Amino acid sequence: MSSASQLICAVVYTNKSTEAAQTDSSVISCVMQEVITEMKIKKVKDSLQKFPWFYRVDRSKAELILENYTSDGSFLVRECHHGGANVPFTLTIRFRGRLFHIQIRMRPDSRFALGTLKSNEMHFLSVAEMIDTYKKTPLQLHSNGKFFGETKLTHPPIVYSFSNKC
After folding, report:
1. Domain range spanning residue 104?
2. Which end of the chain is more exposed for a tag (fewer CB within 10 A), N or C?
3. At a CB cut-off of 8 Å and minimum separation 6, what does 60 contact?
4. What are the angstrom distances between the C-alpha of 25 and each of 36, 37, 38, 68, 128?
5. Which residue has the higher pLDDT, 83 or 27?
6. Regarding beta strands 89-95 and 98-106, do their DSSP bridges make them parallel or antiparallel, or are they unpaired?
7. Where is the signal peptide (predicted)?
8. Residue spans of beta strands (DSSP E) within 3-79
9. Is residue 8 domain-shared with residue 64, that is, in the same domain?
């Protein structure tokens, strides 16, 4: 049994009053939503393994991988370890000698979007659809809140010393 399932069971069996039961219902709903989100993200991660641009590495390893690629638009998608359940991935892009790390968010409707929530934002059914779109459509990059430039995603790195399957 997962820790989330254990938590749900603990909440159900420890509270007995009606008021507590209503609170339990809210807690259970919240925990169940987290469990469902985690399951969706695990399924997405597993499906991304087949793509050459997906790496199960942290930020510093992503930077090491891309440091030898000088072409604008060189990129990879990696797991995000600090963004919480709704930010499972980061798109790391090289542009004009710099690296940009852009969060990939999973919206409440299970679609994916880049960065922070924006009105009329582009959103996608999958991370793969997002990558395919930005291979054809320039992606605007910002630094310190200012427009820095735009680039298409050109090619993922080919690296033999880091495993995609870590």
Report:
1. 54-151
2. N
3. none
4. 16, 18, 20, 52, 36
5. 83
6. antiparallel
7. none
8. 54-55, 75-79
9. no
HSE at residue 141, side-chain half, CA atoms within 13 A, is 22
Q: Are residues 82 and 135 located together in one domain of the fold?
A: yes
- Identify the CATH number of the domain in which residue 100 sits: 3.30.505.10
Cα–Cα distance measured from residue 102 to residue 150, given in angstroms and rounded to the nearest whole number: 13
Give the global pTM.
Answer: 0.74
Instruction: Assess contact for 54 and 163: CB atoms under 8 A.
Output: no
| Tokens matching residue 21 | 């039961």
Q: Number of structural domains, the chain?
A: 2
- Return the structure tokens found at 15: 């509270």
> DSSP label at 74?
B
